[in-house]
């Protein structure tokens, strides 16, 4: 199994910003590969001739660094004392949110000449509040996601140039097991080991990043909200209708509590929220958002044996994550008589529309899926993605095989 060398898109992004006067912030779910990316980047720097003595690499989940978590001055001295200030230096601070008042440390290092600062965090709150204020306009965020379908196949050493590959079977492995790098490595040990691994990660996220941090006492309500959202991937949701559903099950949770819990889950990168976009008025709407899961393997942990999410919505989830990887800003499109899965603004500023369906099984499906895109009255590109091997364009709508689309070299490193 390859050692994650296929994270080259993220590596290329980091290299683009090397020595630029910006703090590099790598954010993403726990175990999605942030530390590995830093490790790869550190190796690359050494290969480029940077002396190892000019690189400081600290992971604040390491037990031996706990003495620094509340000792900012000691930590600052430790870092500065390791480096020769007259030469270019690279400082990597992994899981920095564990350090008390870390914003001051990051700022203190950033203003020193010759120091290039890189930080990671497993929580989006890292970039809200004080850090964002302090570093306004002085950082670049690189969001890391678990393996794409293409990276997953590479990690499994599958030759994608073989045109007889059964992509559907491989895709089911991908969505039913996990897309997390370490989880893919564990697959030889069997499904139960992957499941235990995902369970442990999810427990850590909930315990460390959510319930402790935000002092959530009603863990049952929180668990039920997670289960409900996971079972409703790709369906329009609102805190109000979630609260109403829970009430029918005999549990009273206020709308504002539901809203807060959803915010914590998206801040920990478990779910991604997609706002609705009014296709006619060309504006963002404030209600009925959709949620997608960072790794569909987590469905087995979140919804247990009642995994009911249909394969069409799971495919939609995978397409959403891929559009995100490719640097798009994404909405779900709505108008009075039509709805389209995704409206995207590409890194170049162009608009694209995407509709996703598992297969064109009958005439009714064909009419519904093509019709959604055909009703949009503009000349921007429109794509219908399905698993059908035989695809047929219609009225300017491009019908593509989703597996081919997922394996395209569609990444942009110039974001």
Automatic annotation (TrEMBL):
The keyword ATP-binding applies. Residues 207-357 form the DUF4143 domain. Residues 23-153 form the AAA domain. Keywords: ATP-binding, Nucleotide-binding. GO terms for molecular function: ATP binding. It comes from the Bacteria. The keyword ATP-binding applies. This is ATP-binding protein. It comes from Sphingobacterium corticibacterium. SUPFAM superfamilies: P-loop containing nucleoside triphosphate hydrolases (SSF52540). Pfam families: AAA_14 (PF13173), DUF4143 (PF13635).
């Amino acid at each position: 199994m390859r050692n994650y060398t296929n994270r080259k898109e993220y590596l290329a992004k980091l290299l683009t910003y090397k020595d630029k006067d910006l703090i590099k912030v790598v954010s993403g779910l726990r175990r999605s590969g942030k530390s590995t990316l830093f490790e790869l980047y550190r190796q690359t720097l050494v290969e480029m001739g940077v002396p190892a003595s000019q690189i400081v690499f600290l992971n604040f989940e390491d037990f031996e660094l706990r003495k620094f978590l509340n000792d900012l001055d000691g930590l600052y001295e430790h870092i500065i004392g390791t480096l020769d200030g007259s030469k270019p230096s690279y400082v990597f601070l992994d899981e920095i949110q564990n350090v008390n008042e870390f914003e001051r440390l990051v700022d203190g290092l950033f203003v020193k000449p010759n120091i290039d600062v890189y930080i990671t965090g497993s929580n989006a709150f890292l970039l809200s509040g004080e850090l964002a204020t302090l570093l306004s306009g002085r950082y670049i965020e690189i969001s890391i996601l678990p393996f794409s379908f293409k990276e997953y196949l590479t990690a499994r050493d599958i030759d994608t140039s073989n045109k007889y590959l059964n992509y559907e079977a491989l895709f089911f492995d991908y969505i039913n097991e996990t897309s997390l790098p370490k989880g893919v490595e564990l697959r030889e040990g069997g499904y139960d080991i992957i499941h235990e691994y995902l369970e442990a990660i999810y427990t850590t996220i909930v315990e460390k990043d959510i319930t402790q941090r935000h002092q959530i006492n009603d863990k049952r309500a929180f668990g039920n909200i997670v289960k409900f959202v996971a079972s409703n991937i790709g369906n329009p949701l609102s805190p109000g209708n979630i609260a109403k559903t829970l009430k029918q099950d005999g549990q009273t949770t206020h709308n504002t509590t539901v809203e807060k819990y959803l915010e914590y889950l998206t801040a920990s990168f478990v779910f991604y929220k997609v706002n609705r976009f009014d296709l006619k008025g060309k504006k963002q709407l404030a209600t009925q958002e959709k949620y997608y899961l960072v790794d569909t393997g987590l469905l087995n942990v979140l919804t247990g044996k009642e995994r009911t999410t249909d394969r069409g919505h799971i495919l939609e989830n995978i397409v959403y994550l891929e559009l995100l990887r490719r640097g798009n800003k994404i909405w779900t499109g709505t108008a009075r008589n039509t709805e389209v899965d995704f409206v995207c603004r590409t890194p170049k500023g162009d608009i694209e529309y995407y509709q996703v369906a598992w297969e064109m099984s009958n005439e009714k499906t064909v009419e519904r899926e093509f019709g959604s895109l055909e009703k949009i009255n503009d000349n921007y590109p429109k794509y219908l993605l399905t698993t059908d091997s035989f695809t047929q364009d219609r009225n300017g709508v491009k019908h593509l095989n989703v597996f081919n689309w997922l394996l395209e070299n569609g990444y942009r490193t110039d974001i």
